[in-house]
Amino acid sequence: MNPSLSPTPTETGPRPGTGPDPTDADRYWLRAAVALSRRCPPSAAAFSVGAILVDAGGAVVADGYSRRDDPADHAEEAALRSLAPDDPRSASATLYSSLEPCAERTSRTSPCSDLILATAVPRVVIAWREPALFVDAEGVERLRRAGRTVVEDAALAEEAREVNAHLLA
Description:
Residues 1-25 are annotated as: Disordered. Keywords: Hydrolase, Oxidoreductase. Pfam families: dCMP_cyt_deam_1 (PF00383). By secondary structure, the protein is an alpha/beta fold. It has helices spanning 24-37, 75-81, 112-117, 139-145, 157-163, 165-168, and strands at 50-54, 60-65, 94-97, 123-126, 149-152. The protein has one domain: Cytidine Deaminase, domain 2 (3-Layer(aba) Sandwich). Helix content is 27%, strand content 14%. The longest helix has 14 residues, at 24-37. It is globular, with a radius of gyration of 14 Å.
């Protein structure tokens, strides 16, 4: 699979990393999350974000992007919605998101960081920290305080920013 194309559940690729540093496999999946963000319907009031949940064996468990099913959808929310809360794969999965999961929301009551914490997902890899454009961005800190491993791969931040250039001008 080419990570510049959007993967679908059941596709497989490299096994995600497991530690606090980004691996080549993490960059592969993060590029796929950025590719998903390009599917987002445009918005002047929300970031375009892609998210992919990958199990320990490198299989896509779930994916989502902002505004996929509803104008208020966030990428992580859309991906996690298709995962059963007790799905055993989540305990060793990595969630890849092109943008830091939100810690505050204006459109819904549960921010993405809380939705992640309601699962067993132990590791989150992001490309870009959310700028304080719409809300205060503290998703990384919230996840880390709860004991989750959060990996930031700033090498891919520019790719995630490009998708959102219209908001940053």
